[in-house]
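Example 689.
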Amino acid sequence: MARDPRFDILFEPVRIGPKLARNRFFQVPHASGMTNAAPHVRAAFRETKAAGGWGVVSTGACSVHPSSDDSPFPFASLWDQADVRSHALMTEAVHRHGSLAAVELWHGGAAAVNRTTRHAPLSPSGIPWMATHVPFMSSARPRVMDAADIRDLIRWHAEAAVKAEEAGFDILYVYAGMGYLPYQFLLSDYNQRTDDYGGSVRNRVRLVEQLIDAVREATHGRCAVALRISMQELRTRPSEVAPTEAHEVIGLLKDVPDLFDVKMDYSAFDCAASRYTPEGSHETVVDFLKSVTDKPVVGVGRFTSPDTMVSMIKRGVLDFIGGARPSIADPFLPKKIEDGRVEDIRECIGCNLCISSWHDGVWVRCTQNPTAGEEWRRGWHPEIVRRDGQGQVLVVGAGPAGLEAALTLARRGHEVALADKAREFGGRLRWESRLPGLGQWHRVVDYRMGQLRKLPNVSLYPESDLTAPDVAEFGAEHVVIATGARWLPHLCGANELPSGPLEAPRVYTPDDLAAGVVPEGPVAVFDYDSYYLGSAIAEQLAGLGLDVTYITTAGAAAAWGFMTNEQPLVHQSFAAKGIALRTLEVVTGFDGEELRLAQIYSGEERRIAVRSLVIVGYRAAGSALHEALAADAKPGHLHLTGDANAPGAIVHAVYQGHKTARELGVATVTARRDAPFAPRDFQLPEAAE
Ligand code: ADP
Ligand code: SF4
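Predicted structure in complex with iron/sulfur cluster:
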């Protein structure tokens, strides 16, 4: 199909200094967890986006020197020739598709506490960066850089730039964002210097300007030089000569880089969860750039709608549509717009499981795209599967796992029957996506249902509560059981191990609420699952006007939500909705009137009066249907997947469903193992202390 002419503007080539981008789709640098230890995995991950039509494809942050070491968080480096070889795989792969390759040269300063290299962290004025925030948490305090350190920093950028060009990168970034070293120079809170690099905005900008000049000179103007800069704090600071310090900084730098990449300062706002933040949320902070500079501007905002993208260009907010999460969820997003297949876009749901992978220190995982990170290891392409499926498959259960399994099996060529006892397909997302803020999560269902409905070899059977005899009678060659898990009404001990079920009036699980139960208030939500569901239920019940107390064994609400950038916003939301928060407590008993609690460390007992209790704790896998069928099943006939196999987040169910479908009937399943390039010379440059 031809592309809609109203999207033509997105496919215009745009100049970035000495380079020409083939369109306006710009995959900005984003963490992938793929360090130089996995060069083939990384190259294939980035190549898939170039193949999918992104005109510029960036790799993640690359340390310019061992004094910028983020371990245990995964980071790449450009320290030696082994690193050059490692990155060259990625640039060659990106160039094969006519896209430009970009690299973000990175020095973390006080935000990189050098746990492995053990250099004292560097900083403008000895002030730590968020030392009690989990990713940065450290008792190491940075030292103050002297004039020689500043010269070293500029030289390290120049040396890394030479290596980056050698590795084949077209666009080299200087990174003055997200709390990293050049950013620390920009902000007066961190920069209290009295030399030429501190004090006035002019002085605070000097280092960034010198870094850009050094990178350009080192590569003799052959590479484009981009500046990535965070504007959130600067935009709040008054300036004597401009509307804000952000305007003043950009005014001073307006002709210096070939491209501005603008973003927020803190991960929770920069990579904001859809639960609390809509598409395009950066606009209020970055909307002024183009009124100050003639250089092209790229920005992000979880853009998945081509109409919004066009509007960003036409209204003069951005020149390039930056994508990180939308490019992970659908590497082929630009190509689908180009081919007039907008309805096929697998839209990012804004769950931030991808960012949690970085916090976990592993390759990126994505709820919507189970192939992300598996392009090389398992040879999975996000759009193509081997068309080798034969015979009929019955998939029982149309939650995220069953939907993904059915779609992938149908693409393999199987005749697929998908049955669910509910009238509406979607499994747990039927109800969960109706909880406050989780509406966009329904895209997991919408995308798959949209694709399934297009395929002639798929039959859908809603309202089909299947028993073992039903399944046997159906007679499919393969049966995939994806019937989900159950929440249990179990309390737990101080060690969070589940104890027995709580027998008391008005005790509910999320399954009861999903079935339509509305608890009587005041209500307590006891959460030892600690991801999103407990806090989302508390928000929903508060929205119904109930008096809600949220109790958790952890030290914060939605404790695991720090991994997905949700946690700070959950706390803000609780405060706004009047939800009482109790931390580090377990529920020890309930009689329908009074809830007994114990502090998890001291054991001190507390009591509060509530009429109902919702327990969000522990889920049981297993399926009676599977057990009934397993006894007589022929080898290779019956497959258990998703939450019914092992309960997890939606990302796990989609991944399991995909894997089950890819591997069904395949005799030998293999996965490749990546390895780093060994440096020829083990000497690394050391920094003077
Ligand atoms: P997952 O996350 O693993 O996809 P879900 O709990 O989201 O699991 O979805 C499981 C789906 O299976 C639900 O929609 C449920 O209605 C359906 N289901 C459970 N048991 C049966 C059954 N015996 N027959 C048909 N559908 C079933
Ligand atoms: Fe989007 Fe979630 Fe995938 Fe991240 S994990 S790209 S937020 S769908």
